[in-house]
Amino acid sequence: MNHLLFKIITEDADPQFLLSYILQESHPVIAHYGNNQIGTLFPEWNVDDPGRSIAFYGDSTVLNKIMEREYFRDMLDGEILESKLLEVDPENAQKAIFLRNQRITSNSPKGQQRKVKRIIRRQIDRGEISSPAEYKPRSDQHQTEVQDIFFHLFFPDSMSTGQNMPLCIQMVPVDESEELEGLQTFDHYGFSTLQEHRASVPLITPIF
């Protein structure tokens, strides 16, 4: 399996806008060729922003089809993006679930953000965790509830309607001892969902 990694290298770009556009442009390939086996991750994910990089995990044949899209060729030629295709050993990598949680939009997202950031900072101050990425939601929460972990919003345009469709994304760390039961699948953006799709991705550090 491979990671296709994109890094935003131009300093005057709006990272969240470009990451949303990358999700929009990769979506048709993932939906048509991915067979629900292409995962999306953000290697620089943190409590303040999603970072300046995005990666797709899965079969190199599908990842190369993403690279072949005119948008990505233009962005690479224009030195706005840089890319690398990396081989991955999933057995020896830390894993996480990038969860598409659309329930957040109806549950006061700004209030949730502030609450979770306060919890994270208190846990760091107490020495319970060393970074926001180590924070996990309460173990007594049901999978379909809004989890009390921070999130970031992306706004790709829907290919069918042309309207902005907000994607509320959360990162849920996966313990080494934790096993996901059944067939692991991603949605057509490469994310897990609250009900239908559930899969982890191996985390990587941006190499540029």
The pLDDT mean sits at 85
Secondary structural class: alpha+beta
Count of separate DSSP helical elements? 4
Fraction of residues in H or I helices: 25-40%
- Count of strand segments: 9
Order of helices and strands: EHEEHHEEHEEEE
Largest sheet: 5 strands, mixed
Which of globular, elongated, flat, extended, rod-shaped describes the shape? Answer: globular
Q: Cα distance, first to last residue?
A: 20 Å
Q: What percent strand?
A: 15-25%
Q: Are there runs of 5+ residues with pLDDT below 50, and where? A: 139-146
Cα Rg: 17 Å
Which secondary structure elements does this structure contain, and how are they paired or packed?
Elements lengths: L1 E7 L6 H19 L5 E3 L11 E6 L1 H8 L2 H8 L3 E7 L7 E6 L8 H17 L25 E4 L12 E8 L17 E2 L7 E2 L6
Parallel strand pairs: 5-8
Antiparallel strand pairs: 1-3, 1-4, 2-3, 5-7, 5-9, 6-7
Structural descriptors:
208 residues, alpha+beta, five-stranded mixed β-sheet, 9 strands, 25% helix, globular
